[in-house]
Amino acid sequence: MSENLPREISWMGSIPEDYTVTRLGRLVEHVKKKNKGHLSRNLLSLSYGEIKQKNIDTADGLLPESFETYNLIEKHDIVLRLTDLQNDKRSLRSAISTQDGIITSAYITIRPTKIYPKFLAYYLRLLDNAKVFYSLGSGLRQSLSWDDAKLIPVVVPPLEKQKRITNQLDRELTEIDSALSDFNFVEKLVADKRKAFIDSFFTKESSQQKIRLRHLVTLNPAVDSNLRDSKDTECTLLPMESIQFFTPPKSGVTKKWSELISSYSYITPKDIAIAKVTPCFENGKGLLGADLSKPVFATTEVTVLRPNIELIHPNYLALFMQSSLFREPAIASMTGAGGLKRISEQEVLNTRIPLPTLKNQEQIVKTNLEEISKLKSLVTDINISKRILQERKVSLIQNLLSMSQ
After folding, report:
1. Which pTM value belongs to this model?
2. 155 vs 27, 79, 152, 162, 236, CA distance in Å?
């Protein structure tokens, strides 16, 4: 069974003597069973490392009219999404199914026959965490076929040890997931408190005159003319994942001005940017230019507003754009199909904002920033704890799968 494969593998280290090493294809059956005649309507998808159920009757426009080409899968089958390896290096690409159903045939489905199914699922999650799949392609290849995937080496303990490791992982990972759920609940409470706190100010200001944003801002301002000749100057490009929730952005990618100037959104420390595509807009992604030390470029899926500082305080505008008074009508006006809905920039410009005096705006900003900074600090602590727990999950799988006792 060992096929003379190496006794040391990069993602496992040295392999215990009672473990064997074999190819994935020798341990599983490749499942290719079409849903002819619509034998099943239980639509499943692979999302965030889990096989999840979807409503086949309300599925969005990205799905086909007929599901007869979908793959029929069973409980304990394992699904691998080995496409777009070059561009998406963040997603978890494997999961075990907890139910029978159908899933897109663009994914690889395997049925464990000579290995404990959940042990193999954990082993593939180890490869996921170690980003092994990305190293298996070469050149311009952006996906792995079953012919590629079936050659992956699998380290196989004796069956009883597979079950013991699986049971321990189930138990300890359940405890970690429970703690993560608690942190997520607290984080939501903090987010709700922050939202209510911001909304309270604009409720108080409801008697103020309201001015359309088009009279207060410039939409998607052009690149400064003195910078247009700086073609070889390096600049930062912020992809959507770098844009946070009106907090300083994560680091971006360094590019030359000449690569960015005509195809990306331009943001300076004078501006405010908001995500305009779903679900990023609904999730509250946005950027306060004051958090930038110099101009940057960002994905075109953001709308950039440059406030007239003689009329409106930038931080006051940023607070308004986080309020329900702005967000709920904007969400209601979104257009597009499925997961590609966008806010209307004209609707944004037509939005009316309560406009107190600049002095009162500054007082509102000051009061908000003091309270919000406390809430942000709490969220930071929560996220640190969540990251530590996620890292614990990764190390737990690594350590238990390579245990020699």
Report:
1. 0.70
2. 11, 19, 10, 11, 43
